[in-house]
């Protein structure tokens, strides 16, 4: 039987998990569970004899995160496809089908989000195995989660009752009110919509050409005009921006006849809010849980996450505390879904806290701001072995580097030298400079910037340098 191509969707932001999830490093890339990210767990879940190497469809801003996290797993994607703008789930589904068709006319695709938690992977694998012959026969198959409560944050699938492992879909239903959700649970003919689909690439092509040809054709133009960039394929921006911004449910599923559903119970959670995180985590006898160091006294059903401080919770119930190095969120648990309204307000104000943490990840490593004031900034830096920063100069600031560990190859004004632990280098204002880690261990260093303008816009690069290095 034809192997299955996993198509992993990794373009979301996860605004309801702010301030931990941010646009530059959203929830699917955060190592929240067992030191692995949800993206990595999704990749591992789709390995084995029945699967081919995955294709990853992602926002272009996350390309190096994807490469780095795949490398940590020792995995190689067959393709990493970069969207210049977000276009919901219909366009990625069409793209996955087109790429799979180019590889194999009989290809089967498993389309799945990268930001969901599945605790029982054996149950998931069994559901995929059940769906495979049905998808190979030309049906689009969706996977429904058996509900255990009247959840208003999920879409629902209404199925035709039958004593079968594969059911016929009667209707897709949007997120309901509390009253309707309770009715769905009582009726017993509804499943949560997990947003996971299996299909033959030919069947998905035929569905798009029948119901949404403009999406298929627009994606095809963007793919044909795409350009290769290192290990990534960048879709053509102008063509892709013209593709309708619509979900796969609206574009295809609500219109297509003969859709099948495989019910499953793999201890699934979409981790869409801090309440969902609390529901997933092991708890103490009082219902409290922490993803970091915390003390609970006379408190019940609370959640704590803290990056750099002990959090003490005293006399509280149903409270969420999330502490990052630049933001503190304290929320009633029943208001967890409303975190996105805070994010929207900060976006309107142009605040950076929704975009980037103090630690900013780069292709070559990371920087983390320690202090900032009038005419100065101090930051810690890590440079990976073999990586470095491009040749550049600054018009308004000078820099002073102190190496804490490792060996740094530094070029300033055309003079190159090696700087090791406890040694330093001064870079005068306007001096062309670049640096590289030539060794086999990470370089850790402190950078002090001083001058009239302390901003990343005060960087002039050599045009011949590789744009992806910094």
TrEMBL record:
Q: Which GO terms describe its biological process?
A: GDP-mannose biosynthetic process; polysaccharide biosynthetic process
UniProt xrefs under Gene3D superfamilies = Jelly Rolls, Spore Coat Polysaccharide Biosynthesis Protein SpsA, Chain A
* InterPro entries in alphabetical order: GMPP_N, Man1P_GuaTrfase/Man6P_Isoase, Man6P_isomerase-2_C, ManC/GMP-like_b-helix, Mannose-6P_isomerase_type2, NTP_transferase_dom, Nucleotide-diphossugar_trans, RmlC-like_jellyroll
**What are the UniProt keywords, alphabetically?**
GTP-binding, Isomerase, Nucleotide-binding, Nucleotidyltransferase, Transferase
Enzyme kind, highest EC tier: transferase
Task: Write down the chemical reaction(s) this protein catalyses.
Answer: alpha-D-mannose 1-phosphate + GTP + H(+) = GDP-alpha-D-mannose + diphosphate
GO-annotated molecular function: GTP binding; isomerase activity; mannose-1-phosphate guanylyltransferase (GTP) activity
Residues in MannoseP isomerase/GMP-like beta-helix domain copies = 298-346
Tell me which EC number(s) this protein carries: 2.7.7.13
Any idea where the Nucleotidyl transferase domain is?
Answer: 7-284
Q: Which CDD domains match?
A: cupin_PMI_typeII_C, GDP-M1P_Guanylyltransferase
List, for all copies, the residue spans of the domain called Mannose-6-phosphate isomerase type II C-terminal: 350-461
Q: Which family does it belong to?
A: Belongs to the mannose-6-phosphate isomerase type 2 family.
Designated name of the protein = mannose-1-phosphate guanylyltransferase
Protein's organism: Pseudovibrio exalbescens
Q: What is the lineage of its organism?
A: Bacteria, Pseudomonadati, Pseudomonadota, Alphaproteobacteria, Hyphomicrobiales
């Amino acid at each position: 039987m034809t192997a299955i191509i996993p198509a992993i969707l990794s373009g979301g932001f996860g605004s309801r998990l702010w301030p931990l999830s941010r646009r530059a490093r959203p929830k699917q890339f955060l190592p929240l569970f067992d030191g692995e990210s949800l993206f990595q767990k999704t990749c591992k879940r789709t390995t084995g004899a029945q699967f081919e190497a995955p294709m990853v469809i992602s926002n272009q801003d996350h390309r190096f995160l994807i490469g780095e996290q795949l490398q940590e797993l020792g995995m190689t994607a067959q393709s990493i496809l970069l969207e210049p703008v977000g276009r919901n789930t219909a366009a990625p589904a069409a793209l996955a089908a087109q790429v799979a068709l180019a590889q194999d006319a009989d290809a089967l695709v498993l389309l799945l989000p990268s930001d969901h938690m599945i605790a029982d992977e054996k149950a998931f694998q069994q559901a995929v195995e059940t769906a495979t012959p049905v998808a190979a026969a030309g049906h689009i198959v969706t996977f429904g989660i058996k509900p255990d409560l009247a959840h208003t944050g999920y879409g629902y699938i209404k199925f035709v009752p039958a004593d079968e492992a594969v059911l016929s879909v009667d209707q897709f239903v949007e997120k309901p009110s509390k009253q309707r959700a309770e009715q769905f649970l009582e009726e017993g003919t509804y499943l949560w919509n997990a947003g996971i689909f299996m299909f033959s690439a030919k069947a998905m092509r035929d569905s798009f050409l029948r119901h949404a040809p403009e999406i298929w054709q627009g994606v095809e133009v963007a793919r044909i005009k795409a350009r290769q960039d290192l290990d990534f394929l960048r879709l053509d921006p102008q063509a892709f921006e013209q593709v309708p911004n619509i979900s796969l449910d609206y574009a295809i599923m609500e219109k297509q006849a003969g859709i099948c559903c495989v019910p499953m119970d793999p201890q699934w959670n979409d981790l869409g809010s801090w309440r969902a995180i609390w529901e997933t985590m092991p708890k103490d006898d009082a219902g409290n849980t922490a993803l970091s160091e915390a003390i609970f006294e006379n408190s019940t059903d609370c959640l704590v996450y803290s990056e750099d401080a002990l959090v003490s919770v005293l006399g509280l119930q149903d409270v969420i505390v999330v502490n990052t190095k630049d933001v503190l969120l304290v929320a009633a648990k029943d208001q967890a879904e409303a975190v996105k309204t805070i994010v929207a307000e900060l976006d309107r104000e142009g605040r950076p806290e929704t975009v980037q943490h103090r630690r900013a990840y780069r292709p070559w490593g990371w920087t983390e701001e320690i202090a900032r004031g009038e005419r100065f900034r101090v930051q810690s830096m890590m440079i990976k072995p073999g990586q470095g920063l491009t040749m550049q100069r600054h018009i308004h600031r000078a820099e002073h580097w102190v190496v804490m560990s490792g060996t740094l190859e530094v070029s300033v004004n055309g003079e190159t030298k090696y700087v090791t632990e406890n040694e330093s280098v001064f870079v005068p204002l306007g001096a062309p400079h670049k640096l590289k880690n030539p060794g086999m261990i990470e370089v850790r260093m402190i950078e002090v910037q001083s001058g009239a303008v302390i901003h990343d816009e005060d960087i002039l690069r050599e045009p011949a340098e590789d744009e992806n290095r910094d």
